[in-house]
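Appendix C reproduces, verbatim, an entry submitted by the partner laboratory led by Prof. M.T., so that reviewers can inspect both the input and the predicted structure.
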Amino acid sequence: MTPRQKRLWTLVAVLAGLGLATAVALKAFDSNLQYFYDPSEVRAGKAPSGKAIRVGGMVAKGSVVRAPGSLQVQFVITDFAQNVTVQYTGLLPDLFREGQGIIAHGELKNGTFIADEVLAKHDEKYTPPEVAKSLKKRHEGLGADGASATAPAATKDEGTSR
């Protein structure tokens, strides 16, 4: 083998090793990622079942149900367009309450989100960025009164004046 061929094979081996190391690193990185989904995306089937994900939204009023004598709680989160039921066993954050923005980490199973961690916003002015973006996106299609922006608007009668 000539010196040129040896350098070529060394270069091929180094590139193959680098490619293999990159593939292993990307696979490990992807398995540790938790993608964020809002309730509308979950209901549309965009969220994978059985894989660790994050779901966020506002806790729906009147939806929190605690099992007596245990730490199990069930509640509904909403993006004001769709709802997702969340089940959680453990201590909830002190700031958790109805009407509050939260993010839950866990898995989607049979249409119910099984959370292993629940995070609540830390003050009245803060909403997690993912939740704020999701809620803003869902509200763009709604008017100030909650009616669809595509619904016909009430028109002022031209014959009357104030």
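Confidence is low (pLDDT under 50) at residues 144-162. Additional entries are available on request from the coordinating office.
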